Amino acid sequence: MSARYLIRFDDICPTMDWKIWDGIEAVLIQHDVKPILSVIPDNQDQKFHCGESANGFWDRVRAWQGRGWTIGLHGYQHRFVTRDSGLLGLNGYSEFAGLPLEEQRVKLEKAVKIFSREGVRPDVWVAPGHSFDANTIQALVSLGIHTISDSLFLYPHRDSRGVFWIPQQLWKFRAMPFGIWTVCIHHPDELYTNLAYFRRSIQKYRHAITSLPEVVETYAQRKQNWLDAVFAGLWGFGIRARRTLLARPAQEKCLAPVRDSDSLRGRKAEPAQ
Ligand SMILES: [Zn+2]
User: Fold this and answer.
1) Which domains does the chain have, with CATH numbers?
2) Which string of b and e fits 39-64 if b means at least 16 CB within 10 Å?
3) Does the model's pTM come out above 0.90?
């Protein structure tokens, strides 16, 4: 079976750069690509204050969902308050990982309430910074969210808690022989800022681009096997090694080190290293 690709745009919020987005959206519609759009319910991250708050933001979100696009719940406020890298261990900052279950549940309830108020269904969970832990999953399940867009597996699977994992392993298109690959795109990425490059990439890979509903239909009952764990371990090792070599802080460029470090939990408890 040849490789299939999902496209995910993170950090969708009212103050993003809508001129850039309008061009991307036109390409997506032209090529009938149904992406995952990760929407921040109540963005408080200054990095995404690129312009005036868009009028009718939630009208647009509802329209995307009505078009069959997948809407992700991208945290609550996109504010990093701990230095916990969570289950994936990719980034040492989080909005959720490391917090007590009840505290996480309260945040997630607020996030879900905003979606509910705006008539938007959270189709999938997308953790800011790829950082979330077992408490996050327990809280999500209690709120009826059973699908997660994250992990470094080769194929999606459903775990023993009934949670459906859709892996996210790429930040630009790469030709792969097999597997289900989610390409995650952030505002600074060339796929976002260079419309001609984005269009060429979509044209090149269109035949292999799928959608979240198609992936769910195909893999809804697939269980994890030992190869999944082996692949995820190797892929994660590769990402960390590459980062070290390139001396880059994080693949998720929207997650530059938090400036307001005083707000981070555990700061005083950090060992001097
Ligand atoms: Zn984000």
Assistant:
1) 4-263 (3.20.20.370)
2) bbbbbebebbeeeeeeeebbebbbeb
3) no
